[in-house]
Here is the input.
Amino acid sequence: MKTRKVLIGIAAVGLAFSLAACSGGGRGGTGNDSGAAKAGSNKGALVGVAMPTKTSERWIKDGDAVKADLEKLGYKVDLEYGDDKIPQQVQQVSNMITKGAKVLIIASIDGTALSDQLDDAAKAGIKVIAYDRLINGSKNVDYYTTFDNYKVGVDQATSLLTGLGIVDKDGKETGKKGPFNVELFAGSPDDNNATFFYNGAMATLKKYIDDGTLVVKSGQTGFTQIATLRWDPATAQKRMQNLIASTYSDGTKVQGILSPYDGLSIGIISALTGAGYATTALPVITGQDAEAASVKSIIAGQQYSTIYKDTRKLGTEAVKMADDILNGKTPEVNDTKSYDNKVKVVPTFLFQPTVVTKDNYKSVLIDSGYYTEADLK
Ligand code: BGC
Here is the structure.
């Protein structure tokens, strides 16, 4: 009895040794015992880049920048646009996995729709970087890079207050109490960023709504009431037309509009001018992305502000993360608490946004080379 136990013990130890030898990368092994890539081992690997839409200039710039930076490092790139259609993006990500991509960089349309694809990616050892928009509800999101989305909302609301003269350029209250009629717009409910923008903005505006300085005449302040599915400019335009007809038919004017994205601001401005607002007497209107058409509108004195997010930096960061992963290094992050995707807090590299108005567009957008003077003519 005793001898049998000893023999089994010896056999077990032997087996353990041979298993260790295999996984230790001995001849015939993978040479990769931690699952991490070694420097150079992924030279020329394929990286899948999924962008949401081409209807907005920013995503075209993002896609182009990410692709060019990856190619400079010798990677192959599959860059796809989902045309704001969830099934299309799901299919594109599936194809990238099938084609053997080693890293996926994804700016999602609906951050919760990609769970099955991310499971497949994880099984195949593919790492996933969420690009600008967090992917919710999956443990298989490895990294995230974005701008401080809550701060974007704070900045949009602050610039609305500045434009109305309630606070000055240093953020100090001027004592101006209005009351000012304002209306609020939010982004797409399936985009995680939209709630961050909304929360940051509402936290900033609350005090002024509560004390009556700002009057949301329609009474529509809840996120779902003011959200704009897929960030569609036509939807915002329609809502603005409805607001004018329902709330401002008594001849009162809306004096401020919180808009979370330049495309929506353009739709809102069309609704206002269509209803008889002179282009010289538009409300204070905010925006985001510093898209050329909206910067031109700012220069012309129509839109009041936008939020500039240097997509070149974001692209460079996403590529750096991918390159680190493909070389077995751990990407650097600077935020490990803000972006909980309901399953995990995703390690994030955050950038800071900048408010742009007529006063600073030259120094911020032209001096940095983001635009040339000619782009804004
Ligand atoms: C981005 C914004 C953009 C919006 C609409 C958001 O996820 O963070 O920069 O304005 O999508 O495209």
